[in-house]
Amino acid sequence: GQQVMQIPQYQHVQEGEDFTTYCNSSTTLSNIQWYKQRPGGHPVFLIQLVKSGEVKKQKRLTFQFGEAKKNSSLHITATQTTDVGTYFCAGRIGSARQLTFGSGTQLTVLP
Amino acid sequence: GAGVSQSPSNKVTEKGKDVELRCDPISGHTALYWYRQSLGQGLEFLIYFQGNSAPDKSGLPSDRFSAERTGGSVSTLTIQRTQQEDSAVYLCASSSGLAGGAGELFFGEGSRLTVL
């Protein structure tokens, strides 16, 4: 069953507002990746976090990996209409070789 | 091409028929994954190939599903006796397989399967 949970499932924001999606695992993740899927498209890699407590930034996007390596977040500052899409976290649980994806957060940005 | 290629892009079939979906990964990528995505849902892991190792088949939902990877490159996902609940987009992804498989996944455009 699903071992990587993601909230919220949907988020509607006005352009310019901030947005955050949260990813939680019941077990320790060896690493976590974030992907963005535009409507009608396929998932595209954004970033990978490996270290406990790691924080990485990409322009308006800030990614965090929790100290216990069981949770992660993606924060977008001042959203733009180009940020529309579904954001997925994906983690390797323990020594597993395959990636388990979260259920995704679908972001809608209203102009 | 430079990316992951999947075919067919769309497949409509009748319940009970067999279907084959093909994935051509990025050249040199040793890791290959199949995921399934139902409408508006997340990605469900199906199977993972890494080099010459035995594949991880833990995500295959039933024995109607099988996959092979010939010569460490092209992969085929076969669904026998299709059911309506098999309708979904089947996504293939590859990665370099380096660093213990911790690299990013490159996804294909997917094969949309509709079972009538």
Count of runs of 4 or more consecutive helical residues of chain B: 0
Largest sheet of chain A: 6 strands, mixed
Question: Mind telling me the C-alpha Rg of chain A?
Answer: 13 Å
Order of helices and strands of chain B: EEEEEEEEEE
The averaged pLDDT of chain B comes out at: 92
**What share of the residues of chain B lie within helices?**
under 10%
What's the end-to-end separation of chain A, in Å?
37 Å
Number of strand segments of chain B: 10
Strands of chain A, total number: 11
Question: What is the mean predicted local confidence, pLDDT of chain A?
Answer: 93
- String of helices and strands of chain A: EEEEEEEEEEE
Describe the global form of chain B. globular
| Class derived from helix and strand content of chain B | mainly beta
Largest inter-chain interface? A-B, 25 and 27 residues
- Report the portion of residues of chain B in β strands: over 45%
Give the N-terminus to C-terminus distance of chain B in angstroms.
Answer: 32 Å
Helix-and-strand structural type of chain A: mainly beta
Poorly predicted parts of chain A: none
Proportion in β-strands of chain A:
over 45%
The whole-angstrom Rg of chain B is 13 Å
- What is the chains' assembly state? heterodimer
